[in-house]
Amino acid sequence: MPISPVLERQTTYPFVRLNEAARRVEARGIKVIDFGMGDPREATDPLIRQALVDGLRDRMGYPQAQGLPELREAIAGWARRRFSVQLDPGTEVIPTLGSKEAIFSFAHVVVNLERGKDTVAFTEPGYPVYERGALFAGARPLALPLHERHGFVPDLDAIDEETWSRLAVFWINYPNNPTCATAPLGFYERLAAHAREHGFVVASDEAYTELWFDERPVSALQLADRTNVAVFNTLSKRSSMTGYRSGFVAGDPTLISALKAFRPTVGTAPQEFVQRASVVAWGDEAHVERTRALYGRKRELLLELFQRKGVRVAGSEATMYLWLEVPGDASSESFTERLLSHGVLVAPGSYLGAAGEGYFRVALVPAEEECARAVAILEEVL
């Protein structure tokens, strides 16, 4: 049977491997506390859930790719309140089925092999979907390492002129998964200037902009010139709505127009009742403030533990993660296997890219009481 060679070459998705490892440990009778995958487990706010129910009708037709006007307006309103930017709901915003599918398919929209725009750059360690989307679009993936000595921001000076000229997309992700780093507006300005000069797209994955602890992160939406810039965001992390699959892309009207032409073919518009719930979610900040406070309490609990045990924290400024240096000489995978054998699942940095070796990631998603139980276990293990 003919199968895509790109698919055949894919390794098992990292978090599938983590879940399989956890199931093997649980089969031995050990209860696992799962800090591996960044899937929020808190209840979605009741107002959002009620809006979903109220959005149901006897018959629901196909959702339109451009999304409900009310949702586009709600997204633009949130961007205005949060970042003091003006977005035209009609030309600069399009809802998506979460952000993962939009990120995966984006290379199909902008890669142009005939013109030599064949390269998709992304930072690593990071989200595997940037690379996988590039590969399935027939593009050349280019991993740019994030080093702690550079503040976990890619070194733009290390990119040669040929690479700049071949770029179709440059993926960035701040606040960053997994390093928890944030980037200053000056970095976005410099990268966007390169994009205008060399004719590529800055694709900014901003899924974690609302999960911060001391200082609000900035957004590429705040650029004075958003030419060749597309910003991806989602309700998954901000509003604990991973199962709803609701996000958006905003930015350069030319790119949004291209997405409006492409997305009906793929058929990935959010269901209308999900869009109705999303209007409520983007319009409310109270539940987001409660979520940040909850993550903050769990963060402090774990940070105190790691400080006591001498485990160095490399990043914790934002996101729902902690990025930590593996103590001693163990590899990230062998270290996390040892923790898992005691019932604590974390993600080895190597699962997120070669530059992640030497680190491990803790997703602050278990309940507070589970976090406390994990602290008691790690007191004995570390």
Secondary-structure blueprint:
Blueprint: H1 5-9, H2 14-26, E1 33-34, H3 46-54, H4 69-83, E2 93-96, H5 100-110, E3 119-124, H6 129-136, E4 140-145, H7 161-166, E5 167-173, H8 185-198, E6 201-205, E7 229-234, H9 235-238, E8 247-251, H10 253-266, H11 272-283, H12 286-309, E9 313-315, E10 321-325, H13 332-341, E11 344-345, E12 347-348, E13 359-363, H14 368-381
Parallel strand pairs: 1-11, 3-4, 3-5, 5-6, 6-7
Antiparallel strand pairs: 2-8, 7-8, 9-10, 10-13, 12-13
Helix pairs in contact: 3-11, 4-11, 5-6, 12-14
Q: Give the name of the CATH architecture of the largest domain.
A: 3-Layer(aba) Sandwich
Going by CATH, what is the homologous superfamily of the largest domain? Type I PLP-dependent aspartate aminotransferase-like (Major domain)
Point out poorly predicted stretches. Answer: none
Shape label: globular
> Which strand-content bin applies to the residues?
15-25%
Q: Please outline the major beta sheet.
A: 7 strands, mixed
CATH topology of the largest domain: Aspartate Aminotransferase, domain 2
Number of helical runs?
Answer: 14
Percent helix range: 40-55%
